[in-house]
Amino acid sequence: MSAKREEEEHVSVIAPTLENLTLSLTHEVHVRASLDATFEALLEQMGPANETPDGTPLPMKIEPWPGGRWFRDLGNDNGHFWGQVQAIKRPTLLEISGPLFVSSAVLSNVQYRLKELDGGTLMIFRHSALGFLPDDFRQNMGRGWAPLLDRIRHGAEARQDNR
Q: Which long-range contacts (CB under 8 A, 24 or more apart) does 52-59 make?
């Protein structure tokens, strides 16, 4: 084999490490609303009122029962599957497992745990993932969840004020 041919066939492979195969994000949000109002706002914002971080509408469907799907319905049997409800305990827990918005070999677990506090609810959000996460996704995920969590807080507080 010629030297030129060997150069063309040389491929570098970087072995993945545990650090670049895992992701763990946690956010805590204090909501000035009841557990029930916060949980209902959570379902609304993850479903029909969902948006991208820049505010573009991204309506989703969530089936709020064990095994229920969380997906984007584009019509005519087209869409994107994001995950399944792994656990739901109204109004304190919603847990979803699936690929979410990543189109590679990734499994995510997203948990919303709600705890009653004086004057409202503490929402603890956790996103754990295992798999081949593209670098741009990894860098943007921490910032990407914040607008959704903020919309849940605002939605719950508005519900609370209207009661």
A: 53/143, 53/144, 53/146, 53/147, 53/148, 55/147
Query: Tens-digit pLDDT profile for the chain (163 aa)?
Result: 555 555 566 565 555 666 678 888 899 999 999 999 999 999 999 999 999 888 899 999 999 999 999 999 999 999 999 999 999 999 999 999 998 887 777 899 999 999 999 989 999 999 998 888 777 776 676 677 899 999 999 999 998 777 6
For the record, the structure tokens of 91 come out as 């109004």
pTM for the whole thing?
Answer: 0.84
Q: What number of helices (H) and strands (E) belong to the chain?
A: 4, 7
Question: Does residue 1 sit within a domain?
Answer: no
CATH number for 131: 3.30.530.20
Q: CA 163 to CA 159: how far, in whole Å?
A: 7
User: Based on the structure, what is the number of domains in the chain?
Assistant: 1
**114: in domain:** yes
d(CA 129, CA 24): 7
